[in-house]
């Protein structure tokens, strides 16, 4: 499956209203005193929609990418109007100030930071001032991410927002061509943390995961290693893929309650697995090798992403990744 105009319109129609929907909102904030008790739009002048900061960030990434890939769809004009109003220096300055707070270096780390870098990279591809407006925030979070990765002794391999490998994939996409020092540090860390891992036998899926710990690592290593080296690493890491083992990585997961925000994460897992399987096949120079398993994962969740706000406020971005929008 690939991204179609109909997909693009559906995702845009679902996501655009959420970007400015202020309530409900889940803050990632440590209250230092009474003055800190403010509404989200004060703390986050731009990214105060879509339930939480990181979802709003990648929601903007999603709609900008959709507008670039399908510039003639009717929703593209609305996307440009919103970006012109929100992605401006004075509002971005408020976002920068949020990360200058005492708790800033832990807020939305590393998932939201990496998505902000992806948003900046996308914004720079448009004939608009959005990329330049976002640049100071991107550089701030890139520096914070590099410092954070430098302090980490061990990677975080859960399938939620704290996952190290997923953030590193997004950050590498920004750092290459923009920040050679960060790009080199991320590659070094990837090799240190994951280069020697073999015969993966982790327990997946977890009940609230939207990322596969195994496949995000493989996706990262496919970007770090040359094709031949990656092929050898992948064979050692997942030695039984020819027989679709371990089975848990090949079978789409079941989502029992899409009104439960944590259980709804599992639709994201299906979609992010599809994205990873496509990327792994591409890195192996065998683009069709995992096409069927990717398609089955997409089919399991794509029809359901708009059924409840617990999914609709964020799943469009992962559907876009799954359909080749990265």
* Strands, total number: 0
Q: What's the pLDDT, averaged over the residues?
A: 97
Intertermini distance: 14 Å
Instruction: Tell me the number of structural domains.
Output: 2
Describe the structure.
By secondary structure, the chain is an all-alpha fold. The chain folds into two domains: 151 residues, no CATH class; 137 residues, no CATH class. The chain contains 15 helices and no strands. It is globular, with a radius of gyration of 19 Å. The two termini are 14 Å apart. The mean pLDDT is 97.
Features:
single chain, 326 residues, mainly alpha, 2 domains
Could you give a short description of this structure?
It is built from 15 helices and no strands. The chain is an all-alpha fold and 326 residues long. α1 runs antiparallel to α3, α3 runs parallel beside α6 and α5 (89-99) runs parallel beside α7 (130-151).
């Amino acid at each position: 499956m690939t991204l179609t105009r109909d997909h693009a319109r559906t995702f845009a129609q679902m996501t655009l209203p959420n970007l400015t929907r202020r309530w409900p909102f889940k803050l990632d904030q440590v209250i230092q005193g009474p003055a800190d008790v403010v509404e989200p739009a004060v703390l986050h002048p731009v990214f105060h929609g879509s339930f939480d900061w990181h979802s709003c960030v990648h929601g903007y990434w999603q709609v900008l990418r959709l507008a670039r890939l399908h510039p003639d769809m009717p929703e593209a004009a609305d996307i440009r109007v919103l970006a012109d109003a929100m992605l401006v220096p004075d509002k971005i300055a408020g976002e920068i100030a949020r990360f200058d707070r005492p708790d800033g270096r832990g807020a939305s780390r590393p998932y939201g930071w990496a998505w902000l870098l992806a948003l900046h990279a996308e914004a720079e591809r448009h004939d608009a001032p959005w990329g330049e407006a976002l640049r100071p925030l991107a550089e701030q979070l890139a520096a914070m991410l590099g410092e954070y990765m430098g302090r980490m002794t061990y990677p975080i391999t859960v399938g939620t927002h704290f996952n190290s490998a997923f953030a590193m994939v997004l950050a590498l996409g920004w750092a290459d061509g923009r920040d050679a020092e960060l790009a080199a540090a991320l590659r070094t860390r990837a090799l240190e943390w994951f280069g020697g891992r073999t015969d993966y036998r982790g327990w997946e899926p977890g009940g609230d995961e939207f990322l596969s710990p195994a496949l995000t690592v493989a996706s990262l290593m496919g970007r770090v290693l040359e094709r031949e080296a990656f092929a050898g690493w992948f064979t050692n890491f997942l030695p039984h893929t020819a027989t679709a083992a371990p089975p848990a990585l090949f079978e789409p997961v079941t989502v029992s309650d899409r009104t439960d925000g944590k259980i709804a994460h599992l639709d994201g897992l299906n979609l992010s697995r599809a994205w990873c399987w496509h990327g792994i096949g591409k890195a192996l120079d065998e683009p069709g090798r995992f096409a069927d398993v990717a398609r089955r994962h997409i089919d399991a969740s794509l029809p359901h992403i708009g059924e409840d706000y617990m999914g609709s406020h964020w799943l469009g971005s992962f559907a876009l990744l799954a359909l080749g929008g990265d």
